[in-house]
Structure formats: structure tokens, C-alpha cells
TrEMBL record, chain A:
The protein's name in its UniProt record: Sulfite reductase alpha subunit
Annotated Nitrite/Sulfite reductase ferredoxin-like domain residues: 80-145
GO MF term list: 4 iron, 4 sulfur cluster binding; dissimilatory sulfite reductase (NADH) activity; heme binding; metal ion binding
Domain Nitrite/sulphite reductase 4Fe-4S: 154-373
Pfam families tied to this protein: NIR_SIR, NIR_SIR_ferr
UniProt entry keywords in alphabetical sequence: 4Fe-4S, Iron, Iron-sulfur, Metal-binding
Signal peptide (from-to): none
Organism: Thioalkalivibrio nitratireducens (strain DSM 14787 / UNIQEM 213 / ALEN2)
InterPro entries: DsrA (IPR011806), NiRdtase/SiRdtase_haem-b_fer (IPR005117), Nit/Sulf_reduc_fer-like_dom_sf (IPR036136), NO2/SO3_Rdtase_4Fe4S_dom (IPR006067), NO2/SO3_Rdtase_4Fe4S_sf (IPR045854)
From TrEMBL, chain B:
Keyword Oxidoreductase appears in the UniProt entry: yes
Gene Ontology terms: cellular component: sulfite reductase complex (NADPH)
Every 4Fe-4S ferredoxin-type domain range: 227-256
Keyword list, A-Z: 4Fe-4S, Iron, Iron-sulfur, Metal-binding, Oxidoreductase
Alphabetical GO biological process terms: sulfate assimilation
InterPro entries: 4Fe4S_Fe-S-bd (IPR017896), 4Fe4S_Fe_S_CS (IPR017900), DsrB (IPR011808), NiRdtase/SiRdtase_haem-b_fer (IPR005117), Nit/Sulf_reduc_fer-like_dom_sf (IPR036136), NO2/SO3_Rdtase_4Fe4S_dom (IPR006067), NO2/SO3_Rdtase_4Fe4S_prot (IPR045169), NO2/SO3_Rdtase_4Fe4S_sf (IPR045854)
Keyword Transmembrane helix: no
Organism: Thioalkalivibrio nitratireducens (strain DSM 14787 / UNIQEM 213 / ALEN2)
Protein name (Swiss-Prot/TrEMBL): Sulfite reductase beta subunit
One Gene Ontology molecular-function label: sulfite reductase (ferredoxin) activity
Name of the encoding gene: dsvB [H]
Length: 410, 358
């Protein structure tokens, strides 16, 4: 019953040293007419340089999103590819699996879908690609029974990602897996029933290396950092200097510090001016054995990162320079912060306007006031350069700053 | 059947990671002390209590049939300890608790066609989008572009011989879900959408489409008495933002949807602040099945970076040091009026100094 189309273009993608997705698709086509026709349609796309899928609406009972419907525009030529829907399923934080659960997920997909699985999508979902409309509900039910749930799609909270972090990385400054799960599972309703202005993404990176690329991709980025001094093992520093030579240490560590706060001493130890360290991670990345983040760890929160549409790419902006994330209460505060941001944006964002675009439109200070946070000089690179601003409430605002300073000192 | 008899979804959200984690990772959670890399593709982590774990990272094709995943599971059971994890770039990681298990695992993976690498200063797997295989708005493929590029960059994946790590992404439309990267291969449309007026009234919510355009180039119009839309072609920047909400605004074109290359995106805070990628070349043909013009240029940029950059300089940091005129000189790429920014904040990208290299 295997369905075969000639695929001269795709065949060329079976050669070369990198694993070929085409070979996998062909293997599936031997038992799935759907994949047979999907291959045919894909070859047609290669020949005509055009895509032939269109969207639609489809979901599972009780939910509003999480399924990406795909209908073929060339179903007359490829009838078994007429419906080729994707289920987005959220993996565990850090994308950990044992082989038992991976095989069970494969079993479900062999039974209820095409057998094609993308690990993982750019937002971090397992993407179960290739279900006909009537297969979507049974596939979801079986996956759901295994302890997995649908991810986000549409104007909703989206599937999140966290780095491997504490599970295997010595740079980690908080428990990414716990924060990820706690925050996301506080927003399941906003995840499953799209009713926000547009998408909203949380991402969790354990340190400023930001392996999850959260600063450019997350509406709310939680990036680990520390407040106290970098931990230095001077005997390991000395060993490193002796092994690599002073020249290399000076060129690769000392002069690469963005704030020039490391000194190499005559006895091959180092001294760090921690008040001027901006926690960039570079020296720690190079001298993994000798240096580590301090002990007073937590996270910086940045809001508003996103890609191009509509006003151009935006970075996340610091709105909380530091918060502890050690206890359940700390995590509750993180969830509450997420709630106040999403609530304010749901209220004030225009249709199809990302949180960062709203902040750009209304101004950072107004946004902070809206969510009840005080301005802080760590939120800016430098103060304003334009004099076009009314400052008639200067004394009042200055008094707020003084009161906060006094409170902080007390 | 009545509604009640249907199974209720369990809104379990994100599952707990600990049951799936390698036991040594769960045991030493938050207690790791340092790491090194015994060879490309292998990480060695040591916990504060002296526990050690070795990780072997291998490239995958991301779009996998269940047969491939079952093969990876069989390798994990026989050569590792039954646990795997995936990275953000679709690499698979196997964890083992003794150094002796590393070489047999590496050999098995290579024998089965999974390249071991992607660690440290290598070119890791390319961030992957959907393309012709599954998206409804792509101008090109994703899996095929990535496969072609990774075939060409294979040696840089299995070695660590770049000045710093290199992250590459591809995007098959200008929504750019591939993301920022050291090198980014993105679709760049060059002609305004061709509107199929007969279909607009039936499928498009016209005010929503008008609102979506970043440069306000779309207005409602009447054609043959039918409500439709029209585009001010002098204003249009060919971004394709109108196509997802209104498929009759056909932006994809086999000839005029080109590929462009951007460099210098960096999200890490290491050394310099995070940065966005910058346009270096456009007008590359969308040439399946192997996009040879794209891989030739990507390889050329990598070669110049490899020769000229200092240790630990990311691609963007290297250009920042040597200056853009030298980048264009070293790569032989033409510098054109299109490289000069026109978008919000463009003036901050001009040279307001006499700092010039001669
Ligand atoms: C073993 C623990 C890890 C360490 C010590 C580590 C270290 C680093 C370092 C040092 C950087 C910054 C590079 C620089 O600019 O100098 C970085 C960036 C990055 N890492 Fe990791 N990493 C680890 C795990 C991972 C994992 C598991 C992934 C997933 C594949 C990953 C993906 C990335 C990505 C995507 C970046 C992006 C950098 C950018 O675009 O600027 N890292 N990592
Ligand atoms: S973001 Fe930091 S803590 Fe997380 S994996 Fe990367 S280097 Fe480790
Ligand atoms: S972390 Fe960065 S800023 Fe801090 S001392 Fe090290 S190199 Fe300097
Ligand atoms: S980049 Fe565009 S075309 Fe490609 S998968 Fe993303 S939205 Fe679809
Ligand atoms: S392609 Fe972009 S600029 Fe042109 S009309 Fe469509 S939305 Fe507007």
C-alpha cells in the first residue's frame, strides 16, 4: 500500500555526512500513505519553490489552542496529505527523557499519527507532526495519559524553555527546572485558552551566558546572576596561569573583562574588583575550575524581548535587577510578577502587540508604574539625552527616591 | 455518545523533570563544581562531592521518524544509562557515569551516522524552522537548507577550532522564527505582494490586515465592485507581514523571494552586551535542493573569521574590533546603500566620530 512519488530533489538530500530527514520520511512512507503524499508535496514545493499548506482551526476538547492545523492546497494531487496537523506537546524542563517514556511517546505516535516527530521546535515543544483531524483527539488523550500536556499556540502564554542548568552546569544560579514548572503551571489557563493580545513567552536561563537565548526571544526572561563576590580558588588560578602562561591569561581573561576589574598579581593569583564586575561570565567561562559565581544567587528579570514583527527586533529590558529564587515564597513572587505584567498588558496592549512593543509605545516608566515597580538606574544604559520632557513633578519624584534610599539603608 | 462520556483532559502543564533526569544529575542537582571537555562532543562535569558525569553530544536531523528515535533509545540503553536529553539546537545528549563508557558510545553513534560534536568552539547544529514541510507561509524550506549547510559544515561540528562558539540560524520567512545568531540565513522578499483580489473579500479581515502592515502601506479598496485591499508599492518594504492574516496577498515568489545573510547576533552577556545581527549580503537565489550559493558564502565568512579573530571573540565581537570596512574588504562582499539602516533608531548606527581605520 506504500505510496511512492518520484522525488529527484529530495533524493539529493540523502547524501552527505549529516543525518538526513529525507531518509526517515521515506522509511515512514513505506507504511504511511500520508507521509508518502507529504513527500510528494514537499518535492512539488522544491520544484516550484512554493509552499502548499494552509492553516485553519482545530483543537482538543476543552482547550482553545496547541494544535497547528495544516490542510494541503494541492490535495487533488496528494490526497493522503489533505490533513497534516501538528500537536505541540510540552517536554519536561531541560528536555530530559528516559528511554521508556520516549518509546511510549513513539508508540502513541505510531498508533495515532504519522510517526514523524520534531525534537524540538524553536519554542521548545515536542512537535508531533502529521495527524488527520479525527486522530488529533485520541493522540492527545494517549499522550496526556502519559503525563504530558499541550503547549501554547495563538495569542496565549507559550511553551517555555529552561537550560540544563542545575542539573549539570556549575554556573547555574537558581533552580531553572523548579522555576520553569512553577511559573508555567500557574498559567495553564492562559496557555490552553488563547485570549491575550498576542503571544507571551517565558524563558529561563541559569546564568548570564543565557543558553536559552531568552534576552532576544522571551517576553519575560529570567536570567540567573549573583550579588556577592565571584568565588576564587587561588591555587587553581595559579595552576591555570602556570599551565597556560601569563601571556594567554592576560590576553584571554584580564583584558577581556568588559569593566577591567581583574588584576593579575606578581604571585600568579588574581584580584577582582567585584563592585565593578557586571557579572558577564567571561572569566568564569574561561577558568571553569578556578572561578565560580558568588553564593548570594538569584536572577535578573528582563521584559519585552521578541523578533521582527512589527516594530523590529527588541531586547528584553531589565525591570528587576535582582531577586532571590530560593524558596517557594520567592517563586510565588516570581509568579505574581508574571501575573501583574500579563494583566497590565492584557488590559493595555493593542491587538497583536507584543509586551515589548507596548512598552515602547507607552514608555518604560509608565509600564513600571502600571505594574507597581520603582524605577532603578540599573534599568537604563544612561539617562535621557532629549530635553523634550515635562519635569513639573520633579520634587515629588525625587522625594520617592530619597524615601526608598532611606528605607534601603534602614 | 453524550458529552459526559468523553475523557476530560488532565491539565497537567509542564511535567516534572526529575523522574526523567539521569540519576547522577538528579542527585547532584545544583551541586556541580566544574567541567572540562576531554574531546570535541564530550563534556565532563565534576560535582562538589567528587561525583563525575560524562556527556556525549550528537547531532540529529531534528525531524525524526519514530524508527530513528527508537534507534537512539537503543543506543542509550546499550551504551549509556537509559537517559537522554536534547539541546535547544536539536542535539541529543547521552550521559554516562564512567570515562570508560565514552569511547564505545562515541564509536556507536558515529557508526549509526550521528556526528559527535557541537560543544565548545564548534559550529553547532543550526536553529531549525518549519519551511515547506509544515509552515503555511514559507518562501523556502528549512530542513533541507539545514541539512545542506550541515553537510558542508560537518568538520566544524565535530571539531572545536573556531575562535569561539558559532551559532547559526535559518528563517524561511521574514517573521524569522529562527532567531538571532552569529550567522543567520533569512528569506528576504524583494517584490510587493501580488494581490488576488477575487479572494480577499472571502477570507481576509481587512482592518486587521491594514493594521498589521509596519509601514501603513495597505488601504481598503474596491476592485470590480468587490471590497479588497491595495498596496502603496513605493512604501511597501516587502516584509510579508500581511500574508499570514491574508493569504491572497501573495508575497512568496519563486524568483523574487531571495535569501540574505546576517551576522553578529549574540545573546550571551559574556564580555560585550548582547547584540543583534546585521545585514551583510542579500539577493542570494532560493536554490533547492542544496542552496549552494548560501553555503559558499557562509563558509567564506567562517573562514575569514577563523583566520582573523582572536580567541574568545564571537563573530560580532570580531567585526566590532576590526571595523566594518575591513569586514567587507576581507570577505570581498559588496557594501551597498541597503546596508545603511533606515528603520527606527537608524541614526544611532551612523559613525558620529572621526574614528576611521585606513
Ligand atoms: C555544560 C554547561 C554549559 C556551559 C558551561 C555553557 C557555556 C556557554 C557559554 C560560555 C556561552 C557563551 C559563549 C560566549 O559568548 O563566550 C554559551 C552560550 C550558549 N550556549 Fe551554552 N553552555 C552550556 C550548556 C549549553 C547547552 C546544553 C546548550 C544547548 C545546546 C547551550 C547553548 C548555548 C547557546 C545557544 C548559546 C548562545 C550564545 C549566543 O547566541 O550568544 N549551552 N554557553
Ligand atoms: S545559561 Fe548558564 S547555567 Fe544555564 S546551562 Fe547555560 S551556562 Fe549553564
Ligand atoms: S564576570 Fe565579567 S565583568 Fe565580572 S570579573 Fe569576570 S570578566 Fe569581569
Ligand atoms: S520562519 Fe516563517 S516560514 Fe519559517 S517556520 Fe517560521 S513562520 Fe514559518
Ligand atoms: S509586504 Fe509588508 S510592507 Fe508590504 S504591504 Fe505587506 S505588510 Fe505592508
Amino acid at each position: 500500500m506504500a505510496k511512492k512519488h518520484e522525488t529527484p530533489n529530495l533524493d539529493q538530500l540523502e547524501s552527505g555526512p549529516w543525518p538526513s530527514f529525507v531518509t526517515g520520511l521515506k522509511r515512514l512512507a513505506e507504511r504511511s500513505d500520508m507521509i508518502g503524499d507529504v513527500l510528494g508535496q514537499l518535492e512539488h514545493s522544491y520544484q516550484t519553490r512554493k509552499g502548499y499548506w494552509k492553516g485553519g482551526t482545530l483543537t482538543v476538547r476543552g482547550y482553545g489552542g496547541g494544535v497547528i492545523p495544516r490542510f494541503s492546497e494541492v490535495a487533488d494531487q496528494f490526497p493522503d496529505a489533505a490533513e497534516f496537523h501538528t500537536l505541540r506537546i510540552m517536554p519536561a524542563p531541560g528536555m530530559h527523557y528516559n528511554t521508556d517514556i520516549l518509546r511510549k511517546l513513539c508508540d502513541v505516535w505510531d498508533e495515532h499519527g504519522s510517526g514523524l516527530l520534531a525534537l524540538h521546535g524553536q519554542s521548545g515543544d515536542m512537535m508531533f507532526q502529521g495527524a488527520r483531524s479525527e486522530q488529533v483527539q485520541p493522540a492527545f488523550d494517549a499522550i496526556n495519559e502519559l503525563g504530558f500536556d499541550l503547549g501554547g499556540a495563538g495569542p496565549s502564554v507559550r511553551t517555555s524553555m529552561s537550560c540544563v542548568g542545575s542539573a549539570r552546569c556549575e554556573h547555574s544560579c537558581y533552580s531553572e527546572a523548579n522555576a520553569h514548572r512553577k511559573v508555567m503551571n500557574s498559567f495553564v489557563d492562559d496557555l490552553h485558552r488563547p485570549s491575550l493580545p498576542y503571544k507571551f513567552k517565558f524563558k529561563f536561563s541559569g546564568c548570564p551566558n543565557d543558553c536559552m537565548n531568552s534576552i532576544q526571544r522571551a517576553d519575560m526572561a529570567v536570567i540567573g546572576t549573583w550579588r556577592d563576590d565571584i568565588q576564587v580558588k587561588q591555587d587553581e588560578v595559579r595552576k591555570f596561569v602556570q599551565e597556560r602562561g601569563r601571556h594567554e591569561v592576560i590576553d584571554n581573561v584580564i583584558t577581556r573583562c568588559p569593566t577591567r576589574c581583574i588584576t593579575l598579581k606578581d604571585d600568579d593569583t588574581i584580584e577582582i574588583d567585584n563592585r565593578n564586575c557586571v557579572r558577564c561570565m567571561h572569566c568564569i567561562n574561561v577558568m571553569t575550575k578556578a572561578l565560580s559565581p558568588g553564593q548570594d544567587r538569584g536572577a535578573t528579570i528582563l521584559v519585552g524581548g521578541k523578533r521582527t514583527l512589527k516594530i523590529g527586533d527588541l531586547f528584553g529590558t531589565v525591570i528587576v535587577p535582582f531577586m532571590k529564587l530560593d524558596t517557594e515564597e520567592d517563586l510565588d513572587r516570581l509568579v505574581a510578577l508574571g501575573e501583574s505584567i500579563i494583566d497590565f498588558w492584557a488590559e493595555n496592549g493593542l491587538e497583536h502587540e507584543r509586551c515589548g512593543e507596548m512598552i515602547d509605545r507607552i514608555g518604560l516608566a509608565n509600564f513600571l508604574e502600571g505594574i507597581g515597580l520603582d524605577v532603578d538606574p540599573s534599568m537604563i544604559v544612561h539617562p535621557r539625552t532629549s530635553s523634550y520632557i515635562r519635569t513639573d513633578k520633579w520634587d515629588e519624584e525625587a522625594e520617592k527616591w530619597r524615601a526608598r534610599q532611606a528605607e534601603g539603608a534602614a | 455518545m453524550s458529552e459526559q462520556q468523553f475523557r476530560q483532559a488532565i491539565e497537567s502543564g509542564v511535567p516534572d523533570a526529575f523522574p526523567y533526569m539521569h540519576p547522577l544529575m538528579a542527585k547532584n542537582y545544583g551541586q556541580w563544581d566544574w567541567h572540562d571537555r576531554p574531546r570535541p562532543g564530550v563534556l565532563h562535569h565534576v560535582a562538589k562531592n567528587g561525583d563525575e558525569i560524562w556527556t556525549v553530544r550528537a547531532g540529529t536531523q531534528r525531524q525524526m521518524d519514530t524508527g530513528t528515535i527508537r534507534k537512539l533509545c537503543a543506543i542509550a540503553d546499550e551504551y549509556a544509562e537509559g537517559h537522554v536529553r536534547f539541546t535547544i539546537r536539536s542535539n541529543i545528549e547521552f550521559m554516562v557515569s564512567s570515562a570508560a563508557q565514552v569511547d564505545p558510545l562515541v564509536a556507536k553513534l558515529e557508526q549509526e551516522g550521528f556526528p559527535v560534536g557541537g560543544t565548545g568552539n564548534s559550529v553547532s547544529m543550526i536553529s531549525h524552522t518549519q519551511g515547506f514541510l509544515h509552515c503555511d507561509i514559507p518562501a523556502t524550506d528549512a530542513s533541507g537548507v539545514v541539512k545542506s549547510l550541515m553537510d558542508e559544515l560537518y568538520d566544524e561540528f565535530v571539531n572545536e577550532r573556531m575562535p569561539n562558539r558559532v551559532r547559526i540560524s535559518t528563517s524561511c520567512c521574514q517573521i524569522n522564527c529562527g532567531g538571532q545568531a552569529d550567522i543567520s540565513v533569512n528569506v528576504q522578499h524583494t517584490k510587493p505582494p501580488k494581490i488576488r483580489h477575487d479572494l480577499v473579500a472571502g477570507v481576509c479581515e481587512r482592518p486587521a490586515v491594514v493594521a498589521r502592515c509596519p509601514v501603513a502601506a495597505i488601504r481598503p479598496a474596491l476592485v470590480n465592485g468587490q471590497p479588497t485591499l491595495e498596496v502603496d508599492e513605493r512604501k511597501c518594504i516587502c516584509c510579508g507581514a500581511c500574508f499570514p492574516p491574508c493569504p491572497p496577498m501573495q508575497i512568496n515568489d519563486p524568483e523574487h523571494s531571495k535569501l540574505a545573510i546576517w551576522i553578529g547576533g549574540k545573546n550571551s552577556n559574556a564580555r560585550s552586551r548582547p547584540s543583534f545581527q546585521k545585514l551583510v549580503a542579500a539577493g542570494l537565489p532560493n536554490n533547492p535542493p542544496r542552496w549552494p550559493e548560501v553555503s559558499a558564502l557562509v563558509k567564506k565568512i567562517l573562514r575569514v573569521y577563523q583566520e582573523d579573530a582572536r580567541d574568545w571573540e564571537r563573530l560580532g565581537e570580531w567585526v566590532e574590533r576590526i571595523g566594518w570596512p575591513r569586514f567587507f574588504e576581507l570577505t570581498g562582499l559588496p557594501f551597498t546603500r541597503f546596508h545603511v539602516d533606515t528603520w527606527t533608531g537608524a541614526r544611532y548606527t551612523f559613525n558620529h566620530s572621526t574614528h576611521i581605520r585606513f
